[in-house]
Amino acid sequence: MSAHTIAIIGAGSVGSTIAHTLLLRRVVGDLILVDIDDKLCRAQVDDLSDGTFLANVRIRQGTLADARRAEITIITAGAKQRPGDTRLDLIDRNFKVLKSVLDGMKPFREDAVLLLVANPVDVLTAMAQRISGLPKNQVLGSGTLLDSVRLTRVLAHKLKIADRSVQATVIGEHGDSQCVAWSATTVAGQHLSNVLLLSPEERFEIAELTRNKAGAIIAAKGFTSFGVAAATTTLCESIIFDQRQVLPERGSRDGAVSTGGRGEDSVGKFGKKY
To answer: What range defines the domain where residue 77 resides?
Structure first.
């Protein structure tokens, strides 16, 4: 069992699902949930604690002062994307929330890692780095990781093979301007065009399906949570266990390329040792 601590700011549908996924994956020994809604946060902690016997993880309600002592702080707090909204429509509302959270966490520990999940994640990640004053390689966003997973699943389904056999990446913004890196898409080392011929129209359809999947889910159930929780947990595992994975995200590390939001390849290398 890992002895590390992760704090999650925001105990709503996304934050609580991330906590549940981290718990089941046994990524950390201690989880701290923080939310301005004290009653909701307490209820989420009580509910999650009933499942800790599966993983022997300690979970508790905390404050921003508690969160500043965690090795990784995941920020999910902010307004939800409503049906018809783009992620960029959330900037004004979620910037105010982000600034309040970060100001309340100061001073940060020198090796703290901030992981942004709230939308628009690319913009907020850049803002978080400036407000926090932490090095850029310690302020990361979930970026296009989930979009890349969605793309991979579509292609794997068409090929009737396991998702892990497909290497596909969505680059640029986690939003409407994202694009698929078709030229870099491979299947078990073979370029996609060698195993699956797709017309320009089919490529466009797949890209649009990937781009609009979140909107379709939000229109039906009001929010997304399971996919982003899995993506966030993957990032936490990569950091805590020094897995040295190369993943699409928003942020940068030494020796890695990360230019998300400008239509270029967005690749981050994780591998922080504590």
So the answer is: 5-143
